[in-house]
TrEMBL record:
It holds the Pfam family ABC_tran. It is found in: Cell membrane. This is Multidrug ABC transporter permease/ATP-binding protein. GO terms for cellular component: plasma membrane. PANTHER family: ATP-BINDING CASSETTE SUB-FAMILY B MEMBER 10, MITOCHONDRIAL, ATP-DEPENDENT PERMEASE MDL1, MITOCHONDRIAL. PROSITE patterns: ABC_TM1F (PS50929), ABC_TRANSPORTER_1 (PS00211), ABC_TRANSPORTER_2 (PS50893). It is a multi-pass membrane protein. The chain crosses the membrane at residues 21-44, 56-89, 127-151, 157-176, 251-269, 281-302.
Amino acid sequence: MFQVFKKLDWFFKHYWKRYTFAILALITASAIGLIPPKLVGFTIDQIQFNSLTTQFLTSIILGYLALIVVHYTISFLWDYTLFGGAVILEKWVRSNLMSHFLKMTPTFYGKYRTGDLMARSTNDLKAINLTAGYGVLTLVDSSIFMLMIILVMGFTISWQLTIAALIPLPIMAVVMNKYGAAIHSRFTKAQAAFGEMNNEVLESIRGVRVIRAFVQEKQDAERFENMTENVYSKNIEVAKIDALFEPTMKILVGLSYAIGLGYGAFLVFGNKITLGDLVTFNVYLGMLIWPMFAVGELINILQRGNASLDRVNNTLDYEADVKDAEKLQTVNKVDSIQFAHVNFSYPGTEMNQLTDISLLVKKGQTIGIVGKTGAGKSTLFKLLLRQYAGLTGQISISNVDLLNISLEQIRSWIGYVPQDQIMFSKTIRENIQFGKTEATDEEIFRVMDLAHFLDDIKQLPNGLDTQVGETGITLSGGQKQRVALARAFIKNPEILILDDSMSAVDGKTEAKIIEHLRRERKNKTTFIASHRLSAVTHADHIIVLENGKIIEEGTHEALIAFNGWYKEQYNAQQLEDGEVASE
């Protein structure tokens, strides 16, 4: 049960001063809280024996007021310090998770779904926060505070009465242990179900237009209803155990009260203790309710925290399959990029997605990559971006193996526009500035001209300050692609990768963008993958991929002369364009 504290020892060691102060202040406040009941009992005895004076009563009242002020001050300090530490822990773990997510490759995101990761970043972190704050409080109160009350009851009133009143405690220990084991198991299942529901919600929101187009609203609502029913049933199982804690505590505390009152009255009649002692004892028994209840709360919180911490640690312990080498080499500029007999297959597959790829790219060249869907064009770019490990052969930049160059440096050279455009829920200005944070409006308008987006920006309600909505839902497919192009252009990267990133724009617009590229990208390397061959006809070198292999390569003229797949496809597309133009 206490394993969760051991797992968090790195945090407690770092903030040992904070937690030491909080615990000492908590113990001090608890000790001060034990004084008033003694004063009450003593006053009752003074009244019983007719020895209470005005001066004595005034002293007691003033003492009470002083204790209230001191107790309030110390309680504020331990509360602020202890729960402030819990918030710091939550912040640390959340920052670690975010940093971890940013380092992870597609393999990780193929294993963990977004909804589950969100659950671990929200609900599980709240459970960990409770463990470091409320958990420490219940640990101190259910052990030290309880022991302090018992010792005061025993030494200052009667050990016989104290032991008799605490007979229910062993029963409580056994019952709480069983409840704790059940909570851990059921809470883990409930959190997993919550993660699955998150996934369902995210997919439904993202795919809402597809759901409507296929008239699947009813079916999707039914699927969601089933998911929520599953989450509900799992949480009800947790709630059933939760609901047993308080009644069990009350029964055991009530039993202690009955013993204390009955046996205490017997001792008063036998003149073994005074009436004031009996009143004080029963006040202490009342104070013992919270420490007894805290035992149940402690078990509940620690089991939840342990389950959540295990889920978070499983995520953080996932080793990135792509990371920097121990000894890195510095490359000052990109003079060349070379693929030498590169072979690659995705994790979990046996068939190669790329086979024996060899290609030399010199600085300033434009490379066209074409082929059927699934030929391996995007895979080639992902390897250059080092999104996957496990390739054989070698990719090098300026004659230095890509594995020996830092990931940060590689990606700082590259401007990447993928097939699926990602727009952030911000303005168009902020989306473009993602490529260059300090970019001015003048620079932004310039790259929008390169991406042929100036006419569109004039039609948008707030110009550059137009909110694009989540994932750019307010923009058309072609507009999103051109904003993404502008974002890459403003970075002015050494290597620009366009991965079929103009598929949603018409041929005339694409031709203008290509023309702008040719003018702007002189002396810089550009890769263009496209199904529309007109996008690569100007390239210095074109490769044709089929089933991950290079089947043709050369300039546009050379490939036309080769009379292979490229010529056949080019003629077919020219014919289609001609028919469209004639229409």
